[in-house]
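Provenance and format

Records in this collection were gathered into a single text stream. Each protein contributes a sequence line and a token line. The two records reproduced below are adjacent in the stream.
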Amino acid sequence: MNPKLFKMMIVSLIVITIAGVGAIAYIVVNSNESSEELSIEKMVEYSHTTEEMNTDLKDGSFVQIQFQLITDSKKAKEEVINRQFQLKNIFIKESVDLTEKDFQEGLSALETKLKDQMNELMDDGQIIDVYIISKIIQ
């Protein structure tokens, strides 16, 4: 084998290996930053409290409910405020098949569904958590 070609292959492999290690290190460092949990102060700053929402349930009951949405940035909070009508729409569609019993036992599933469906709509940031902060069933 040509010694010049051999040296060039070794140098190329070393450069590729260094670039790969650098890329992996960059990915690891950036993934750790994004997975950090928000402080309580940031959660409050990036949260939005919805208006009270009323809807009827499958069993003839009515529910009045209010949510606290925690986002990951100020831009995401502003977007959530602008998309509040979509949140109401999603909530009404999800509650059509729910009963009074569902609102007494399965609230975590409702919070998760609202969060997931709203995140599909979000352009700037995301919703980290949805909390039910007020609920009245009649």
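Adjacent record:
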Amino acid sequence: MADPASVVVVGSVNLDTKLEVQHIPVAGETILSRRRSVSPGGKGANQAAAAAAAAARVKFIGAIGDDEHGRIAVRNLSSWGVDLSSLQVLARVPSGEAHLIVAESNAENLIVVSPGANEHLSPAHVARALETDRSTVLLTQLETPLTVLEVCAEHRGSQWRILNPAPVAPASELRSLLRGFNLLVPNRMELAHLAGSAEPRSLEEVRACTRRIDFDGAIVVTLGSAGAALFLQRDSSPVVIAPPPVRPVDTTGAGDVFCGHLARELAEHGDLERAVRAAVHASALSTELPYAQLLARPLGVSA
């Protein structure tokens, strides 16, 4: 019998400051922002919110500072019904922050993260929180220490153990941990990093990259506006799933929406292809919204 939290997410919590610009600046270029907004974020929190918004029962394990940014994050995740009983509150460390630049021309983005409390999440705390957890799905990313990832890799209480290898980390440090997971969800850039190759453009190049990774589970490669490619095994032919037509205004957090919905679907029925199709659909629709945590309202806006 699964724990009441059918999805457990181990990950980061940030407060996102978004600057909307005409185009993404290049090195040395100074441009003016047309609009500024602040909203809840963090890959782990985004994915937890997405899974909860899709009607999963979600438990979140992460760390915040004892500050207003942390309290905002708590209020927001609580509003989605996320179980925060395993959230670590650290007294002398600030909560994480992310600064996003989003281009009005094509909705592409650039993100810089200040980890704060996220890099102080205790592996021992995570181990205790997971010790008795029997959620169907464990979902984690790389915005917390690799020692936390080691704990997640050793966890065997969940049927599905998903690693979203973002943001990229040293591939040499990840390779030994991959065997602890049975589902890998990278984008093209993250896939290339793990494979030690150039970023793939064609589907055949994506397939070649998957073959270079020493991983025995299934791989779902998110392809942005092209949807996703599902490889049930490393050397299998992919199932390519196209997204519905949308008019994107902000691609920030689309990958997190994908992961959250994927986790929710797997917790409900366990059919991977069906889960990927639902996640592609939800992720595409999320790009028509302006904030990372789905329908979360901005906390403050200035022109």
